[in-house]
Specification:
Number of strands: 3
Radius of gyration: 25 Å
Strand order of the largest sheet: 1-2-3
Mean pLDDT: 84
Strand content: 5-15%
Structural class: alpha+beta
Largest sheet: 3 strands, antiparallel
Low-confidence stretches: none
Amino acid sequence: MSNSRMDTEIAQAIFTVNRHAKTASDNHYLYALKKEALNKMILQDRAQKIGLHFSKNPRKSQQQSSVLVKCGDYYFHMLPKKEDFENLDHLGHLDESYRNPASRMNLRSAKEILSELTGLQPVKKETSVSNLGKAYQPREMNRFYSPKKSYFD
C-alpha cells in the first residue's frame, strides 16, 4: 500500500483493468481490483463520487442506477450503496459524447499497481495433477461376467 503513486497513474491503471475486464473470460479478479481500488481512493479523498447515472444496460429490464466516480482525469461507474441514493444527486442518463482520455498502459503493470494499492492477489487455480500421475490400469476381465446386457451394448 503506497501513497507515493500519483492519482493519475492509479486512475490510468483502473481504466486499463476496467477495459480488459469487459472482454476477459474470467473477469472476477479484474472487477474486484477496480472496485477495491476505487473504494480505497474514495476513502483517502483521492477520488470523488459525483452522482448517480441510469445504467445503459439494466439487469432484467428494470431501471438501475450506478455511481459516477471521478478519479484523476478519468470517470468510472460502480454499483451504488444504499446511502448513495440518499447523499448523491441523480444526473439522469449517461452522456454518450464524453470519453475518458486515451491510455497506453499494459495490463500486467496496471494489475501490479492496483494489487500493490489494494493488497488483492489473484487466486491460483490448481492444475489437475491426479490425472497426469495415474498409471494405466486395465479393467478386470471376467470371462463369466460382462457388464453388457446384450451383444449390442
